[in-house]
Amino acid sequence: MSYSSYETLIVERRGPVGWLINNRPRQLNAMSSRMRDEFATAWTELDSDPAVKVIVHTGEGRAFQTGVDMTELATDGLGMERYRESVEKLDLHFTAWHQKVRKPVIAAVNGLCAGGGFHFVADADIVLASSDAQFFDPHVSAGQVVAFENIALLRKMPFEPVMRMALVGRFERMSAQRAYELGMVSELVEPERLRERAGELAKTIARNSPAAMAATKRALWGALESGLTDACRNGADELVSVWGHPDQTEGPQAFVEKREPRWVELAPQTPPVGE
């Protein structure tokens, strides 16, 4: 499968791992309107490529992602109004979660992560960070409201440090070590090994059943949207959804025969009615 041509991103596959790399290093990978649109295409292409089993998201240069491009906001005459319709409709199609990406997503945070960059931290299934990474939210320092990104972070970490980060704005940065202690990040890696480690982890995950992992993602993320009993009911539905799937037979058979399983690829997604 060949990917689209991108101006602000690098999108490629290496073995079973799809790489989505923010590529505006001179702007600290701030998200222009062009990058926002390219994200939506990139997530879809990587999720649709049957050869991609896991997606790693990282950035070029000294920043992972630093939110919306403030220069564009200040100079193009449109400001945030260009995003009004998508925000009011909760059409956050540039992220992994709201795009309903079925494959495991690893965010490998290199350097600075600020503001809208937290979308990609909150929506990733697993987050690694370089030991020199720094996190801060400058929204209120630029007259903007903190909402989606930090609301989503509340699913991963305690309330008080999220609120503190929202209210302090650009005047205080959270270290990678503190982010790890609070559960925003599950592993710290020396900067020069970040991509290597993310690739290793992705390849390990890629050895598992794609169908089982997709159902697992739906079950666990879905649990954050509902109460315990409803979450268990939904989890039961996902559990039995793969009963009868070829991977259910292949997994035990491969174990007995002491070989790598031959998993069935994910079936193409069916677009929602009306699209």
From TrEMBL:
<comment type="similarity">
    <text>Belongs to the enoyl-CoA hydratase/isomerase family.</text>
</comment>
<protein>
    <submittedName>
        <fullName>Enoyl-CoA hydratase/carnithine racemase</fullName>
    </submittedName>
</protein>
<dbReference type="InterPro" id="IPR029045">
    <property type="entry name" value="ClpP/crotonase-like_dom_sf"/>
</dbReference>
<dbReference type="GO" id="GO:0003824">
    <property type="term" value="F:catalytic activity"/>
</dbReference>
<dbReference type="InterPro" id="IPR051683">
    <property type="entry name" value="Enoyl-CoA_Hydratase/Isomerase"/>
</dbReference>
<dbReference type="InterPro" id="IPR014748">
    <property type="entry name" value="Enoyl-CoA_hydra_C"/>
</dbReference>
<dbReference type="InterPro" id="IPR001753">
    <property type="entry name" value="Enoyl-CoA_hydra/iso"/>
</dbReference>
<dbReference type="Pfam" id="PF00378">
    <property type="entry name" value="ECH_1"/>
</dbReference>
